[in-house]
Amino acid sequence: MSKIRVLVGTRKGAFILSSDGARKRWKVSGPHFAGWEIYHMKGSPVDPDRIYASQTSGWFGQIIQRSDDGGKSWNTPGSSPEELKSPDGMPKGESNKFVYDTSPETGKPLTTHQWYDGTQHPWEFKRVWHLEPSLDDPDHIYAGVEDAALFESNDGGKTWNELAGLRGSDTGPKWQPGAGGMCLHTILLDPSDPKRISIAISAAGTFRTDDGGRRWKPINHGLHSQFLPDPAAEVGHCVHRIAMHPSQPNTLFMQKHWDVMRSDNAGDSWHEVSGNLPTDFGFPIDVHAHEPETIYVVPIKSDSEHYPLKGRLRVYRSRTGGNEWEALTKGLPQRNYYVNVLRDAMSVDSLEPCGVYFGTTGGQVYASADSGDSWKPIVRDLPAVLSVEVQTLK
Amino acid sequence: MIRVILPPHLRTLARVDGEVEMDVQTPVTQRAVLDALEARFPMLRGTIRDHMTQLRRPMVRFFACGEDLSHEPVDAPLPEAIAKGAEPFLIIGAIAGG
Hints:
The complex is a heterodimer of chains A (about 400) and B (about 100). With about 400 residues, chain A is mostly beta strands. Chain A has two domains: about 75-235, no CATH class; about 240-375, 7 Propeller (Methylamine Dehydrogenase, Chain H). Helices cover about 0% and strands about 40% of the residues of chain A. Chain A has one helix spanning about 165; strands at about 5-10, 15-20, 25-30, 35-45, 50-55, 60-65, 110-115, 120, 125-135, 140-145, 150-155, 160, 185-190, 195-200, 205-210, 215-220, 240-245, 250-255, 260-265, 270, 280-285, 295-300, 315-320, 325-330, 345-350, 355-360, 365-370, 375-380, 385-394. The longest helix of chain A is centred in the middle third of the chain and has 4 residues, at about 165. Chain A starts with a strand and ends with a strand. With about 100 residues, chain B is α+β, with helices and mostly antiparallel strands. Chain B has one domain (about 1-95): Roll (Ubiquitin-like (UB roll)). Helices cover about 20% and strands about 20% of the residues of chain B. Chain B has three helices and five strands. Chain B has helices at about 10-15, 30-40, 80-85; strands at about 1-5, 20, 60-65, 65-70, 90-95. Chain B has a five-stranded mixed beta sheet with strand order 2-1-5-3-4, covered by helices on one side. Chain B starts with a strand and ends in a 5-residue tail after the last strand.
């Protein structure tokens, strides 16, 4: 029988929730890495027991953790006893080292981006927001970081190298931080084309490579952001999340700062599909596991009031790929509920019917085992939830 | 033998309980202590001082013998009581945050 494992990153540690395929009884494991911010955890599609975690701290910086047994035990890659020393006797422990590439060979050296006051500011590494294991190799993984850049490891997270072509693209000096920092938070790998990767940065926009990461181009045509001097600018859009169904990799869905958007040409152009949503501000967006035109968002009142409208927690589902939305309320609090759902805090399983999961800044993780028709909290009163990833285990 | 006391989160990361005892080359300086610590516990690299600049992270402090040595030169000899192991070298996470 299938099993479900839900990887929950919070402000104060990681939690792993597990259930059998019935999705009724949940076992909670954690906190792992207690007291640390866990921005994201994700398992390898080809080896689900290989899980990567981004453990961060304002005091002690960035740690990459890896489990090879489904989250029972963890290690910092490259720091096991047999790896303690390199051949020349120097200590290793490079797994936490994210150094921007400024070499002329691999990318145009670029050392500044736009700061809040309009001046140029040096790139400074702060943390890993998102980890995206490759689709075919458990040792190959991408990391989206703040200040925005894309890194890659080909040795299971022991060492990391920047794909500097992204940060070195011509638009780099125009990128600027959003309220949460200048973060690369979304990485979409195209299952039909291993050289195509789409990423999103707040607040720069969406970018795509078609050559495995060497050259990148902004793909923001059709986005309209009123807060920009030029609302249709090439970059500067605060994209909160993009999502894709693996069977339709040319169709992308986007939750922007305001506006829910859709592209049917891999991001070359976008059009708005907010339709009848009561507010089109929000953070997460995700796609049903079996229905590529069924998508989910969690509308939030506004950019200055990060909580649901009227204190009613509602997921909205469109079965038409946008424009026509229905409120999903069964089992969700409909009064006095003032939490947020962050951009990486929604995920789906691939059982039948599809399960949908999201975590809140109030520490609840809600789950639906019927594609969103009804919900219940599978754990509550955790620290604020930063990320939710779901693994469907055979 | 040098005695080092790590903050709780770094003890967990390094998988140690209590104090760390290490042999450190003389002269015993901040740099020598941290080099020895990172050689023994590579997972601590980058957590106390920056990977590239080797500067102390902003919210980490070094205390010893009742003094804050955080702003002392990294190559200055540490107090003799530290070098002899009579007193521990404390690595502190600043009191801040929620």
